Amino acid sequence: MNETARSAAQPLAGIRVVEISSFVAAPLAGMTLSQLGADVIRVDPLGGAADYRRWPLTDDGTSIYWTGLNKGKRSVAADLRGDAGQQLISNLITDSGPGGGILLTNTVGREWLDYDTLAARRPDLIRLEILGRADGSTAVDYTVNAAIGFPLVTGPAEHAGPINQVLPAWDLLCGLYAALAITGAVRHREATGEGSRITLPLEDVALATAGNLGFLTEAMLSPTPRPRLGNAIYGQYGQHFSAADGATFMIVALTSRHFHALTELTGTRAAVDALATALDADFTDEGARYHHRDVLTGLFTPWFRDRTGVEITAALEQTSILWERYRTFHEVVADPRVTANPLFAPLPQPGIGTYLAPSAPASVDGAHASPQAAPRLGEHTEEVLREQLHLSSTDLAQLREAAVIATGD
Amino acid sequence: MNETARSAAQPLAGIRVVEISSFVAAPLAGMTLSQLGADVIRVDPLGGAADYRRWPLTDDGTSIYWTGLNKGKRSVAADLRGDAGQQLISNLITDSGPGGGILLTNTVGREWLDYDTLAARRPDLIRLEILGRADGSTAVDYTVNAAIGFPLVTGPAEHAGPINQVLPAWDLLCGLYAALAITGAVRHREATGEGSRITLPLEDVALATAGNLGFLTEAMLSPTPRPRLGNAIYGQYGQHFSAADGATFMIVALTSRHFHALTELTGTRAAVDALATALDADFTDEGARYHHRDVLTGLFTPWFRDRTGVEITAALEQTSILWERYRTFHEVVADPRVTANPLFAPLPQPGIGTYLAPSAPASVDGAHASPQAAPRLGEHTEEVLREQLHLSSTDLAQLREAAVIATGD
């Protein structure tokens, strides 16, 4: 990595963010800002926030989840219920130099962290608050997802009842929208001197996304509900197929070229042509391929059913078809796409040991930064308070003794 | 909205992005940058890119999907296969003023759009390329998802085979990572004068995310695969319940307080206490609530089964429990959370009519910008070429006649 790459890879160098957070969205936002070069200080209550012991855990009780979402941050632990701790952390937010004055939080209803309270002391404050809903009420990824529509169209057509997505997609999107809003606000502040008061409700992330993708618009315009499609792709030809040995494959034909390759592979060219004539269907049109998906799938199925996963893989590799074999997480981590991927690097993580950790997915000049370990809780309490608030060893000893702060355990 | 809010809400004002894209990730990135105030010019081949007619469609063939993901952009249509069109669009990318020189694309392998080709003409170029995989091979959301592990742990425990998520979560996350990387690169360029060459593989977005959330780390550390959990939440107590009338509810108890409220609601306090004693389980611990989830669910089920959705809703509203009723997209769009939500505003969209469209989910000073219509294909071809490349009416007429450009149809 040359000098240009190193610095273009850290575009938020000089920015300092105080994060008071838990769970996924806000921690991901902070970690993402850190990966872009910001100094992100996660402030937790003594003993840790509600996510500090969240599963999965190692045998000694370290949270794999927490360490995964807090890589590269500094950790300050303080008594956030008492006046002294609140005063200290308020100071840390507002008295943190020209690149500071940025608060990222998902803790609602704490007066001492209000925009007005903090902006009275630092007018160029950037404050981003993640809410459950716009009215300030609580919602989490799992409840937002239930209310948005996707679980009732997920899974096999014959299934009744909801199927939740396992990926906390709304939290993740919310975290990235938050990181983006803060990065934009930094540019605005550097140009104008003005801060920003930003509100980001998790539910609105889901609603905006469902709107942007057309799910809501379609429901506004048409009385016909979109059906449960199993693993088919709405408006395109895509389906999963099972091999003789139980391996499963996702097959996608977005274009006529892909579709042609699929009929060649499965030796169904003549049958597909005959079907096109009999059904008066133009299979060069993606809508026709979608409309007639069931009969097409029935036609392609035997080719997959009569071959092993290895045979199917070898054959698909010779084609332009978009495909993947469904894999377990254990298969994923043993694959060179992880083990030989520069996105991953060995990371010595206290409490976990050395494991292959991802850095940020975007690379600059083809290079990835090394992933950084998550802190121990309170690991940087004294370092940060010395450096940012110029507290002395005596000050720190008194705060420690009064249980206003805690240092790394 | 006061003056400060208006400008803090448009932090990317003065930035100009040329987007050559299709489908979800790159278009969402461009739209998101536009929502932050950037001038985003989507350049398409004559007749539109592969996503221009993607379902859902209106009766007259307008894509609800395309219009949803391209709101607020300007559209230029040009012959991207011929030298004249390529020269024109190259000029548009490089000769676009101090805020320009930014290319967002997911079209791989076009030499005229290479970083080196363009940066030779504009050294401070910011170029972000979205790839399928890091090696440049093709992958789409559906194939990436198959290969990452989630479909094999989604859905009912007794289900065999993969269940795809309906939400194209990897595309969406990729789009937001792209918007963020470009915004960071803008800050870097404004500070140093240096451009950025950024690569973002869709597959690496999925791998990094699965790593950050601990799914991959857990698989590296433990030989035991995480089971299919149905609608339960790993490591927490959460489950869906069905009402007497078929309504379904997602119920989440993240904390002891939530769990206590759930036992009170369902009148199972004594039974839960007896279970805790008999099983030697401490239900103040989230791990114990997760471990014993099946018996707890069995205990809570009759309360839901004996009541209607309306009765359950009324009762849940009096508690601190995290909950939602599962809703269809049609129920969502009829709800005040959409119809009375300032996130949505009536948008007159050519080809669709006026519908409630979302703006960006983050609000500044509590205000949302109005959503902007998607362009007609080529609507701004002449406007943009006049303004950016100072072409005359004669120039434009010649280009039109030679089928190098097209204007709005």
Write a brief caption for the model.
The structure is a homodimer of 409-residue chains. With 409 residues, chain A is α/β, with parallel strands linked by helices. The two termini of chain A are 36 Å apart.
Task: Describe the protein in words.
Two copies of one chain form a homodimer. Chain A is elongated and about 85 Å long. Chain A has 409 residues and is an alpha/beta fold. In chain A, strand 2, helix 3 and strand 3 form a beta-alpha-beta unit. The N terminus of chain A is likely disordered. In chain A, helix 2 crosses helix 7, helix 6 runs parallel beside helix 8 and helix 7 packs across helix 8. Chain A has 18 helices and 13 strands. In chain A, the strands form three sheets. A seven-stranded mixed beta sheet of chain A has the order 6-5-4-1-2-3-13, sandwiched between helices. In chain A, strands 7-8-9 form a three-stranded antiparallel beta sheet. Chain A folds into two domains: 276 residues, Crotonobetainyl-coa:carnitine coa-transferase, domain 1 (Rossmann fold), CATH 3.40.50; 78 residues. Strand 6 of chain A pairs antiparallel with strand 12 of chain B, so a sheet runs across the interface.
CATH class of the largest domain in chain A: Alpha Beta
Mean of residue pLDDT of chain A? 96
| Main pleated sheet of chain A | 7 strands, mixed
Largest interface: A-B, 150 and 150 residues
Number of domains of chain A: 2
Total strands of chain A: 13
* Helix-and-strand structural type of chain A: alpha/beta
Ranges of chain A with pLDDT <50 over ≥5 residues? 1-6
> How much helical structure, as a percent, in the residues of chain A?
40-55%
CATH topology of the largest domain in chain A: Rossmann fold
Protein name (chains A, B): 2-methylfumaryl-CoA isomerase
InterPro entries (chains A, B): CoA-transferase_III, CoA-Trfase_fam_III, CoA-Trfase_III_dom3_sf, CoA-Trfase_III_dom_1_sf
Keywords (chains A, B): Isomerase
Pfam families (chains A, B): CoA_transf_3
